[in-house]
Structures are given as structure tokens and as C-alpha cells.
Amino acid sequence: MNIKPTAQDIEEAHERVSPYIHYTPVYSSESINKIARAEIFFKCENFQKVGAFKARGGMNAVLSLSDEERQKGVATHSSGNHAQAVALAAQLQGIPAHIVMPSNSAKVKMEAVRGYGANLIECEPTLQAREETLQKVISETGASMIHPYNDYRIIQGQATAAKELIESVNEPLDYILTPVGGGGLLSGTSLSAHYWSNRTQVIGCEPEGADDAFRSFQTKTLVPMVNPDTIADGLRTSLGEKPFDIIKEHVSDILLANDNEIAAAMKMVWERMKIIIEPSAAVPLAVLLRNKELFEGKKVGIIISGGNVDVGSLPF
């Protein structure tokens, strides 16, 4: 399938994954609303299976495989949340999973992948090493590759989070903010807003130290990520081609926040909402707080992408 996912594709993906994932809650915080001068609706994917929205795409991709493909198992590369999503989906379907992870991945994420029974292969922390190691694994095993974001099955699955957010909030949202790394969540979110809440603007949120999506969006040309430097470990990856095509068409803007702002937003959610979120998940709130005048008086949906934190290395 080389055309962008339709509303029907996303509805079918939602039906496919629903028995296997959580319909996560949408929370608000009066104190954060006051600080932000906006009405914020947090879609809490930190309470999702594997602690992140990635369970949606991983599950959809694995459930979309043919019987023949399932027998040979699945393979992917990921720094964490997608790795866990594919490992869990494979475990639930009783098929092998081979997961390539950079050696500097959060230990909590690596342990979780092993806990789901996957074969974990460590590699050097570069995109080239990840891709080369993955190709070797695929040629040895015949496993089906499930790319972390450059895959329409993944995008369809990730789109279901925004679909649920739109359904949960009875009034139209002015904006939905999501983090952007590879672009699966942002592109999926923008499609759901396009199909089910056309007046809602979707904005991607990115760390200054890993701003390839911002630069790609500005120049309308895919700019690869080089030496990302940010506490938001889930966003240290290059924007994918398939997500970028959708983002160019349906995303209003991509805005940045620095690591200090990200850490402050993360701390604010921990303290004010009493929920654990990871640095990548704090980027949209950091962006909102940096750009208060843009969002003042607006209804804003934020997808909290995950809550897998190495508590031994908190940024506050």
C-alpha cells in the first residue's frame, strides 16, 4: 500500500488493536491550565501497554501479517518503546521477535524487551549500525521487518490515539500537540484530525537538540538527523519519508523546546498531576509553555507519548 491511510484504514486498525491495548484516559489539570492560560486535555499514553503509544502501531503491524509471515517472526530496530511494542505483540501472537537496540538505550526499556521474550541484539548507538545489524538479522531469519515509523501499518495504529482523544473530548479542539521523532505519531495524529476534527490544527513538538523534523518542515526537504543531543531519548531518530509526506500536507507547524524547558515540563506533570511521564512525552507541554501567547484561551489536546523513565537518571 503506497497511498496514505484512509479514515477506513484507521477505523479498521482501531478495531484490530482494541482487544489488545488500553483505551487510555484523558486528564486535565486545573493548576497547569492556569499556568498555561489554556484548557489542556492530556491523552495519557503513559498508561498504555508497554507504557507508550507505540503499542498501537506495533500491535497493528503484527496483526496485519499473513500466516506465512508470522511463522518467520518479526524484526525491528528501536531505542525502546517501539522495541517493547513489537516484542509484546509478537509474544501475544506466539511468534519470534528479533529486536536490535543501541547499546545506550535506557536499561529499563532493554529489560522490558527481554521480559517479553524477544531476542535482543545490541549494536553501536548509530542509525547506520542499527540498520546494518537489522539487515543481517533479517537475512539470517527471514523475519518480517516492522519499521518503527516508516510504515503505513504503524502510522494507522498510532493514529488511533488521536482518534480516541477526539472522541473523548466532546467539544472541538483548537490544537493537538504531539512529540515528533520518526513521525509515526505526528503523521497519524494529523490524519485523525483531518478525518474527524477538521478545524483542529496539529503541531509537532521537537527538542532543539534533535530538530531534523523542524528543519525538514521549514525547507520541505527531508533533512537527516545528525548527532542528536537531547534528554528526550525517544526523539533521537530521523524523520521517516512516509510520515514526512503526510506531515507536509496535514501538519500546521513544528515548534521547538530546549532540554531545560523539557525537564521543567516533565517535573510539572510529575508534581501537579502525580503521573510519571518520560522526557519525550514532556516536549509538547514544554512547547506550549514556551509559546503561551499562541495557545492562550485555546482548547489544546496533548498526547503524552509514554512513561518509560530510567528513574536512576532523572533530569531533575
TrEMBL record:
Pfam families: PALP (PF00291)
GO BP field: D-serine biosynthetic process
SUPFAM superfamilies linked to this entry: Tryptophan synthase beta subunit-like PLP-dependent enzymes
Highest taxon listed in the record's lineage: Bacteria
GO molecular function: ATP binding; D-serine ammonia-lyase activity; L-serine ammonia-lyase activity; magnesium ion binding; pyridoxal phosphate binding; serine racemase activity; threonine racemase activity
Keywords assigned: Lyase, Magnesium, Pyridoxal phosphate
Segments forming domain Tryptophan synthase beta chain-like PALP: 17-306
PROSITE patterns membership: DEHYDRATASE_SER_THR (PS00165)
Reported cofactor(s): Mn(2+); Mg(2+); pyridoxal 5'-phosphate; Ca(2+)
Family statement drawn from the similarity comment of this UniProt entry: Belongs to the serine/threonine dehydratase family.
Name listed for the protein in its UniProt record: Pyridoxal-phosphate dependent enzyme
